[in-house]
Amino acid sequence: MIVSVAMAGMTGGCVTVNAPDKPIVINLNISITQEVVYRLDGEAKSLIQQNPGIF
Question: Which pLDDT score, from 0 to 100, does residue 39 have?
Fold first, then answer.
């Protein structure tokens, strides 16, 4: 038991963490697409066709 604890102590490594020399760059290529779908009531559609200058 003592020998296994001693072996574990000898084989345990040292971990070092260093900051990188260059800054970390994260490229985010994001594409946003918006689609607008509209439906008109039959009466509204005919009203717009009768009065094209309404808008």
Answer: 79
Opening angle at CA 9, ends 3 and 15, nearest 5: 160
**Tokens matching residue 46:** 């005919």
- d(CA 2, CA 8) in angstroms, rounded, equals 10
Question: How far, in Å, CA of 6 to CA of 21, rounded?
Answer: 37
Contact 48, 40 (CB under 8 A): yes
Contact 12, 5 (CB under 8 A): no
Give the pLDDT of residue 41.
83
pTM: 0.29
Question: Could you tell me where the DSSP H helices lie in the chain?
Answer: 2-11, 42-50
